Amino acid sequence: MFDKAQVSTNIRMKIALVLLLAAAVSAAPNTPQTHEVLELDYESFARDTPESRNFLINVLINQLFNFIRNVIANGSPIFGIPPLDPLKLGQIHLVVPAGLINLDLKLQDAAVSGIGGFLVHRSNLDLSKLSFDIEISVPYLNVTAGCPRNH
């Protein structure tokens, strides 16, 4: 059902993400540091919206999306991830029940391009609820494939 190269690429991407998180944690100082204590005006925080408090985090998340676009377009030689646009799928069988029109597609030598052009319409990390809300679309996908051979 899945191409071994595709599964291997997905596993490599997950390993790359875990290694990136581990590197960030290991870069943190392990010796206690003393800092001056600042008094904060809590009333000004009460007037702020959750969006303004999470502004920096959301900027970093947008940078992460830009990094993902770059990896999709160019791959990552450090982690051994090849470019994923176009994504070569080999042989795939898709069943799409779409109400009036149901699709049963059998594709051979399939390739999908345009994945790296995804748009992030909205993303919000809410630390108080520990939730991440995201709205993504891919405005253009080009799928090319050959016909399966009947025996």
From TrEMBL:
<dbReference type="Pfam" id="PF06585">
    <property type="entry name" value="JHBP"/>
</dbReference>
<protein>
    <recommendedName>
        <fullName>Lipid-binding serum glycoprotein N-terminal domain-containing protein</fullName>
    </recommendedName>
</protein>
<dbReference type="InterPro" id="IPR010562">
    <property type="entry name" value="Haemolymph_juvenile_hormone-bd"/>
</dbReference>
<dbReference type="InterPro" id="IPR038606">
    <property type="entry name" value="To_sf"/>
</dbReference>
<keyword id="KW-0732">Signal</keyword>
<feature type="signal peptide">
    <location>
        <begin position="1"/>
        <end position="27"/>
    </location>
</feature>
